[in-house]
Amino acid sequence: MPIQHCIVHEIDKESGEQPASLRAATAELASSPLLEDLLSRFHDAYHAKTKAWGHFQEPDASEPGSATPFAQELTDYLEARSDFAAFSQALANRLLPLVDAHLSASGHLLCIDYRQGETHYLGVALLHQRTGFGIDSAMRVVPAAQLNLARMSLGLRINLTQWRDGAASRHYLSWIHDRGGKKLSEDLATVLGATEGIDATGETRTLLKAFSDYVEREDMPEEQSREKTEALIDYANEQAGRGEPITLEELSELLDEQQPKAFYDHIRNADYGLSPEIPPDKRTLRQFRRFTGRAGGVSISFDSHLLGSSIEYDESQDRLIIKQVPKQLKEQLKQRKE
Fold first, then answer.
1. Residue 260 covered by a domain
2. Domain range enclosing 239
3. DSSP letter string over 272-326?
């Protein structure tokens, strides 16, 4: 991931009533293997977080210069009307009130302009430090400060290529939306002039529901169902790890090479209302799995999200209660009764 520009500013959050202050860097960091490694670690930590996905609020076409302040500053930087240091310092000052309102610790604001393949990105994150241990040249144990990337609660990433190309994408901008940090996420969106364009959690849930319906409709054998479930989850997690969306057509081809449009057509024909590209929600993916069991001539397989809704387990009496019997099974039972 070639780094174009990188700078780190310090935001000092003192205890008490003193507001957060900025100690701005005046020069960019030179690219190095260590900085490349930090970018890679930032990538991993950021994509492991739950995020909101959206876009900048649309400017009024009849009013030149009506873009949101941050979007205008970003445009000025990309069109070389300001340099990266000035642009990042202005952003750091915009973020100071958020640190005051929502965070209790100082941190270093990492601002990094980089490319991944042919795509141009801007990443921003407030990184906190923790004290660890190290060994000095005399083989003594000494305190050593290190960045705590897992604690990152304020961060964003912009796909500059999609935004600048004027693509129809409504999710070229993402920002951290951790559980318990809803107000911070909302205030960050306000600072950025951003609005959510897609509900990643809801869309991921709907995609998994569409997949469950597809498996049921095709009446797949248990082994085939499990293989396709694993293929879907592996692909979705791989996309999540790279910060890329699930593409429905690509997923459909992956699930069935013989009928590459089958799953895609199922989604469209059933009108689930899914976007062609879905930012995967890792928390929702982690909760999705299939329960399976076979004994005494009975084979049962169902998706975990059905437990507690259409399927209940009565542990005291060791009973599995199916509230919605599959249509095909229902018809077979009726025929048998006749």
1. yes
2. 200-290
3. ----SEE---HHHHHT--EEEEEETTEEEEEEGGGBTTTEEEETTTTEEEESS--
